[in-house]
Write a structure and sequence with these properties.
With 112 residues, the chain is α+β, with helices and mostly antiparallel strands. 40% of the residues lie in helices and 15% in strands. It contains 6 helices and 4 strands. The termini are far apart. The relative contact order is 0.22. Keywords: CBS domain.
Length: 112
C-alpha cells in the first residue's frame, strides 16, 4: 500500500508552534490578486482560512484522494503524531493511483 509518507514532499513548516490556519498559493491568487489586493502589503493571516484538513503519514494514497475530494482541496499537510512532516499534492497522488480515479477527484475539487 502506498502511503502519504511515501508520496509527500518533506520540509513543510509551520509559521508558529500553535498555528491552526493553512494558506496555499491558490489562496494568494483567489483571495488577494483576484480581489485587487496588493501582495506586498497583504498579510498571510488575512488570507489563511479555517482549520487545515490533514492526512496521517500512514494513511493510504486512496484515503488522501478521498480526503481531497471530500474537502475540495488540492494539498494536504501530512501529520505524524502531532508533527507536520510533509505535504501531499494532487500530482503526488496522481502518480500513484488509477488515472480514472484521479480524474474524478480533479473534477470534484475543481467544481466550486
Amino acid at each position: 500500500m502506498t502511503t502519504a509518507r511515501d508520496l509527500m514532499t518533506h520540509g513543510a513548516e509551520c509559521v508558529g508552534e500553535n498555528e491552526t490556519l493553512q494558506m496555499t498559493d491558490r489562496d494568494i491568487v483567489v483571495r488577494c490578486l483576484a480581489e485587487g489586493g496588493d501582495p506586498s502589503t497583504t498579510t498571510a493571516g488575512s488570507l489563511a482560512r479555517g482549520k487545515p484538513v490533514t492526512i496521517g503519514a500512514d494513511d493510504s494514497a486512496e484515503e488522501a484522494l478521498r480526503t481531497m475530494a471530500t474537502h475540495q482541496v488540492r494539498r494536504l499537510p501530512v501529520i505524524a503524531g502531532h508533527d507536520l512532516v510533509g505535504m501531499v499534492a494532487q500530482a503526488d497522488v496522481a502518480r500513484a493511483l488509477d488515472p480514472q480515479d484521479v480524474g474524478r477527484v480533479l473534477q470534484e475539487v475543481s467544481d466550486d
